[in-house]
Amino acid sequence: MVEKVLMPQLGESVTEGTIGQWLKNVGDSVEKYESLLEILTDKVNAEVPSPASGVLARILVQAGETVPVGTPIAEIEVAGEAAEVAPQAEPAPAAPSPPAAVVDAPAAPAHPGPTERGRYSPAVRRLAQEHGIDPSRIAGSGAGGRVTRNDVLKAVAERTAPPTAPPAPTAPSAPVAGAPEPPREVAGVAPVPAGPVEPGDRVEPLSNIRRVIAQRMTQAKATVPHAWIMVEVDVSGLVALRERWKAKFREEEGFNLTYLPFMLRATVEGLKAVPQLNAQWNGDSIIYKKRINLGMAAATDRGLVVPVIRDADQKNLVGLAHAVHDLTERARSGRLKLEDLSGGTFTVDNTGAVGTMLTYAVINPPEVGIVTMESIVKRPVVVGDAIAIRSMVNLCLSFDHRVVDGADAARFLNVLKRHLESLGPDSSIY
Amino acid sequence: MADSQMTPELMKEIYYYMALSRAVDDRMWILNRQGKAPVVYSSNGHEAAQVGSAFALNRGEDWIAPYYRDLALVLAWGMTPREVMLHVLARADDPNSGGRQMPAHWGSRRLHILSGGSVVATQNAHAAGLALASKMLKDGRVAVAYFGEGSTSQGEFHEALNFAAVWKLPVIFFNENNGYAISVPQRKQMAITDVAARAQGYGIPGVIVDGNDPIKVWEVTRAAAERARRGEGPTLIEAKTYRFVPHSSDDDDRAYRSREEVMEWKKRDPLITFEQRLEAEGILSAEEKARMQQQIKDAVNDATDYAEKAALPDPATLERYVYAE
Amino acid sequence: MTYLEAIRAGLRQEMQLDPRIVIWGEDVGVRGGVFRVTEGLQQEFGEDRVIDSPLAEGAIVGVAIGAAIGGLRPIPEIQFGDFIFPAMNQIVEEAARMRYRSNNDFHVPLVIRAPIGGGIHGALYHSQSVEAFFAHVPGVKVAVPGTPYDAKGLLAAAIADEDPVLFFEHKAAYRSLRGEVPEERYLIPLGQAEVKREGKDLSIITYSLMVNYALRAAETLQQEGISVEVLDLRTVRPLDQARILETAKKTGKVLIVHEDNRTGGIGAEVSAILAEEALFYLDAPIRRLCGPDVPAMPYSPPLEHAFMITPEKIAQAARELARF
Question: Which is the catalytic residue, given A226, A311, A401, A408?
């Protein structure tokens, strides 16, 4: 039986030792506790006793060599089984032998059970709020299915990754009340958290239409580079024209003649002259639409909808007036059909109906423009060298600057301006 | 340099500082009883030991590490009555601590008075360290630690004296033994009669001196300082004296010592006995004494007025000077 | 160069540059210290500058305070951190508040060196981690280097500092840790933690020997696909709050590791900082892996091993935290 001699640890903090000299030669017999060799460390020099009685069989490390504590340095052939080298509990004062590899892990945090779904860490709550994500919709990879911070970050990364396909040009261009599976959050933008709810505040869950509006508006403002211009139009002639026809029109058509059809007519002229505004942004291309389908923003008591007048360029003024009347009626009574809300190529918003003078309207993508007609008001204006009282209106255009240049946009508004200013009491409406 | 000869002029100066200290001390008690100084620690009775030892050293140049009883010492060392009153009234301009420490916690880098805390006996090691620095830097300074006899029970007292003795440091350990550590008499503090006997355990000289005689104190301190400067190591001096007032303004000494004992010691009031001696020896004339007393009265009044008008510390400074700024 | 050699090299370099530096302590002179940190320094600088002092920690520090005020730059050694308590009075009541109590009139430029930590069969009185006691004390700084490079740089900064610094060396690191140490002088500012390893899944905040163990654990976990960041505090007073928050915010999960026992340890302070300043970035409870709350490390190997924090224990704790 062979007893290995290990480099002992001579002193706290010592990690290695150098053999000074061997006091026995190979083949010498040695008594247990008899000095076997000298060891030098940077703390002490010491003689090292033999761990057993027997014959020095091999010297594994020569004098002058330095080896780490615990390295075998010699072998003693133990004198027979009777030599009582017995089971040594601790081999030498050397090699600290860490008991077993069993790591008794100190108290672990209460292991999250399956109930962890639905319990969110502060980091998850914060990130979910910042990114407008519902953590309950994220698959949890943590213990017990817990949604981790990294799960949220992954979900955000996946959502904000560039879309694999451009938005289909045929997609409905207007929000649809009750559309199937509307996204529940507004994409891509971290909202500013609301302040604390105070006594008297009313918290109302989002209706579907409000949710869709919010989503579309946020998307429009976040993705479309809006630009904006305005012209001032003298509509004294239009006012006179409408005054002249008002009663007769009511009598013949059964509803009031408003200014909106005139505006739609002018817009059609404008779009014909500046087709850049009757277009759609398509990611890596621009689609110039042949048809002119005018969206007509309409407020309803459930929110804003934008029904579409198809082929507006093929309707005369009375035809446009009918279309407006029809869509408005149906919008207010909630009877719009899905096709009424899709396929628009440009939007007209009669903001003057709510009394504004100037509007920075939000574009309804993938359309590239929206024009508003503001309130018609009588104002003193300079005509020639005189000041006159005229009926004036502002036309405001928001346009997608990726598609439309400022000059084109101005040209468009000037077409509308010329068209509207050309109208007078003697113009025909049929 | 300290004078090598005791002269009449020097004796008058010693007398002046003893009298000044007593007057400042008395004023502190008045301010306390007026509610202006929350706490007062007195040197009343210790003046001879303190001023006598101070004049044996290079005042303002050697280092002293005083304890809370050492008003007369720091006055003799160069602190002005104004500076003392700023400290007593915890004003912002208190040079000892900016109003941070309780009164009688002296300290001035300019004057070489080492700042002290309230844990007793720590300053002995500091004095040894100052002496070690002097020895290494060869600046010829001596450091003197002052302490009461009660604090010699502390382990740190022993550690410091032993360290200083082994390394023969130029330091003097100056004990003002007034017989009481607050209420505990010396016989309950130690089983020996003389603190000076402790010196034997360190292999250094232990000298007993009448702490109420400034000239004798001057002499032994001078000898100890010379020994230190010669590189022969520390000396333990025990100046036996008495305090005539309670430990502090919060103490009532009637609980632990008899009026008879106090009256007996008062017969040996160092200020009175020294004054009588100077008069008897014709050193101090009646006119000089009157002039000195007027000077002291003016100084104390001025210091009190000055400190009372001085600004208190700004609370915004609370967190300053924890570390270097 | 080993951790010990780095400290010795630092001491020698500083002593060569500044004749005011004086070392004293038990056995530091002729013997070169029981760990040999000061070996050769007395021969080089003489008995005046490397002094074998009496066996009295209170005086070792107390004399150093006086000497520092008297114009020296003392670097007293306390032979074992366990023996620093007789000097507690001088450190806490005197050195730490000298500047404050004198309204900036006095200050104590002093470096107290002491070995801390266990794992070297040192038992109850040669294994303690004492840093938390001092981290509580305004007026002192506490350096706990975890690498040879940091040991030298922090030592230079400690000596240059105008306030008392406790410089705690891990005795198990003395000969077991090796690393590149430049010969030229450099200072590592006190109060600056360092990210020793970048990671993204969780942060281990630690110091002293445990930095090395944490790095080893991080290596293991890397194989398992867990990315661990290791922040070495380097000083436990002042604590580098900015970097603590930075790493916590980065990974959202924090494991604090120290050999010192748990209650009232550095981990408690770090946890409090995170709870106060980083709540909304935390994705898991703050976790501490610390020495147990027993008076000190026992002697017998199985007991010592059970006490000691090991790379395996750190890896296991980090693994659990990563899974959370």
Answer: A401
Say yes or no: A67 and A216 in one domain.
Answer: no
DSSP state of C252: S
A43 reaches C (C-beta below 8 A): yes
pLDDT, residue A383, reads: 86
Q: What is the pLDDT of residues B194-246, one digit of tens each?
A: 999 999 999 999 999 999 999 999 999 999 999 999 999 999 999 999 999 99
Instruction: Give contacts of C 238-257 with A, CB under 8 A.
Output: 252-253
Distance from CA of C36 to the nearest CA of A (A): 7
Instruction: Give residue for tokens 């698959």.
Output: A139
Domain shared by C172 and C198, yes or no: no
Mean pLDDT of chain B: 96
Is any Cβ of chain C less than 8 angstroms from the Cβ of A426? no
- Domain count of the fold of chain B: 1
Contacts of C58 in chain B (CB under 8 A): 125, 155-156, 159
CB A36 within 8 A of CB A56: yes
Task: Closest CB to A123: pick one of C252, C289, C323.
Answer: C252
C-alpha distance from residue A75 to each of A26, A51, B42, C20, C120 (Å): 9, 10, 79, 54, 26
Same domain flag for A122 and A48: no
Give the chain A residue whose CA is nearest to the CA of C291.
Answer: A106
Domain hosting residue C90, numbered range = 3-176
Residue at B1 is within a domain:
no
How confident is the model at residue A167, as a pLDDT? 41
Chain-centroid distance of CA B300 in Å reads 19
* A142/C35 CB distance under 8 A: no
The pLDDT of residue A116 is: 61
Looking at residue B179, which CATH number applies to its domain? 3.40.50.970
Q: Which residue has the higher pLDDT, A203 or A238?
A: A238
Task: Kindly report the pTM of this predicted structure.
Answer: 0.71
State which of C120, C149, C176 marks the end of a domain: C176
C184 part of a folded domain: no
Q: Domain with A12 in it: what CATH number?
A: 2.40.50.100
Q: Which of B65, B122, B130 sits opposite C90 (nearest CB)?
A: B122
Do C104 and C210 share a domain, yes or no? no
Separation between Cα atoms, residue A232 and residue A188, nearest integer Å = 37
Give B32-46 pLDDT, tens digit per residue: 999 999 899 999 999
Amino acid symbol at B153: S
pLDDT for B252 beyond 50: yes
Which residue is catalytic, options A28, A42, A134, A405?
A: A405
Q: Does B229 reside within a domain? A: yes
Is A182 within the bounds of a domain?
Answer: no
Please say if the pLDDT value at position A187 is more than 60: no
pLDDT at A178 over 50: no
pLDDT at A160: 66
Task: State how far residue B8 is from chain C, nearest Cα, in angstroms.
Answer: 34
Task: Provide the ipTM.
Answer: 0.95
Residues A266 and A309 in one domain: yes
A168 assigned to some structural domain = no
- 8 Å CB contact of B321 and C65: no
Whether A134 and chain C come into contact, CB under 8 Å, resolves to no
Q: Binning pLDDT at 50, 70 and 90, where does residue C48 land?
A: very high
**Burial track C284-311 (b if 16+ CB lie within 10 A, e otherwise):** bebbbbbbeeeebbbeeeeebbebbbbb
For chain C, say whether A165 makes contact (Cβ under 8 Å): no
pLDDT of residue A102: 39
Strand partners, A19: A39
Cβ <8 Å between C324 and A148: yes
Listed residue (A11, A14, A12) closest to A68, CA to CA: A14
Name the residue in chain C with its Cα closest to that of B154.
C58
Q: How many CB pairs under 8 A join A and C?
A: 89
Check if the beta carbon of residue A15 is closer than 8 Å to that of residue C36.
no
Q: Over the stretch C55-78, which tens digit does the pLDDT of each residue have?
A: 999 999 999 999 999 999 999 999
DSSP character at residue A41: -
Q: Which two tokens stand for residue C179?
A: 């690393």
Measured between beta carbons, the chain B residues lying within 8 angstroms of C62 are 122, 124-126, 128-129, 156, 159-160
User: Residue A144: pLDDT band by 50, 70, 90 thresholds?
Assistant: confident
What chain C residue is nearest to B135 in terms of C-alpha separation? C48
B267: domain range? 8-317
